[in-house]
Structure formats: C-alpha cells, structure tokens
Amino acid sequence: MKYLNYLKNTFRLYLISGIALSLVVFLSIILYRYNNYLVGALHIEEDISLNKGKVKNQTHEIDTAIKYFKDDLNLDLTDAYFEKLVFQTLDSVKTKMQDASITVTTFEEAEGQKRLPVEIKASVQTYRELTDYVEYIESFRIPEYKINQISISKGQKGDIVLDIKGVIAAPSFSVQDEKAEAEGKT
Predict the structure, then answer these.
(1) 3-state DSSP call for residue 162?
(2) Domain ranges across the chain
(3) Residue 53 and residue 58: Cα distance in Å, rounded?
(4) CB neighbours (10 Å) of residue 17?
(5) What is the Cα–Cα distance from 143 to 41, expressed in whole angstroms?
(6) Would you place residue 55 in the very low, low, confident or very high pLDDT band (cuts 50, 70, 90)?
(7) What DSSP letter does each residue of 61-78 carry, written as one string?
(8) pTM (predicted TM-score)
(9) Could you tell me the CATH superfamily of domain 78-175?
C-alpha cells in the first residue's frame, strides 16, 4: 500500500512538472518568435528612416524640375497630357494584342476634340479571340477609341486577319480657354 501511495504521489509530481515544462517550452517558443518579429520590424523601421531622406531629396528634385518647366520655360502640359493618355492606350493595346501591328497618322483637332486616327491589324485564331479583341478596344473610355470600320480577311499565311480602323479621341481643352472663361465670369 505504501508503495502504491508513493507511486501516486510521484506520478502527480511528474505530471505537474511535465505540464510546467511544456508550458515553459511553449512560452519560450512564443517569446522567441515574438522577438524575431520585433527585430524584423526594427530593421524595417531603420530602413524607412534611412530612405526618408532620399525620398525627400528626390521629391525636391522633381519639384525643382516641374517649377523650371512651368516658370522658366513656360510650358503648357495640357497637350502633353492628352498625348500621354493616347500613348498609354496604344501601349496597353500592344501589350494585350502582342502580334498586332498598329498604324497611326497625325493628331487632328476638330469639333472640340483631339483625335488620332489608328489602324490595328491582328491575326486571330478563333471567333472568341476576335470578339475579345473588339470588346477590349471598345472598352476604352478616356481616351475613347471610336471604331469606324472592322474588317476580316484571309492573311498571306492562311490565317484570319482582323483590321480595326478608328480614332482615339478626347475632349480638347487648353489653359488659355479656361483663363478666358474665368475672366468672362468675373
């Protein structure tokens, strides 16, 4: 009987010490990971504080360049903005339709809009691809791609060639027009 009581007491002691040891190991692992995350966060904060000066310098350089263009060279960037939008549109078309050839002419201005005539020729394999290309071209809103003509023909290699003729157009405005309107209102 004494031996059984001794085993019961020892087992309880071992059980309690095992639970305590498990708890200590578990907490040690959590503290170790937490420490690693804190050290990582401190390194990131140091990197950010080091790069903050570089960003301020670059921002100052950009502001200086913009001020130089506006004040010293008297450049009006409204036309360049439209052209930038057009070229971004053409770039996205070329990215989406990689095998396409894009032909542009010169910029025109009529009816309060700036326009750029564009012709896109692309080889298509399936009807689904053809409809996807046309839908993609029609999805442009600013600047808008107005389709004038769509034709399908057989290419030299026996493939199907989609030919889309249209105009990229956006409303035309200038700083002088806005100034004149502002002066007329006052």
Answers:
(1) strand
(2) 1-75, 78-175
(3) 9
(4) 10
(5) 44
(6) confident
(7) HHHHHHHIIIIIS----H
(8) 0.50
(9) Ribosomal protein S6/Translation elongation factor EF1B (3.30.70.60)
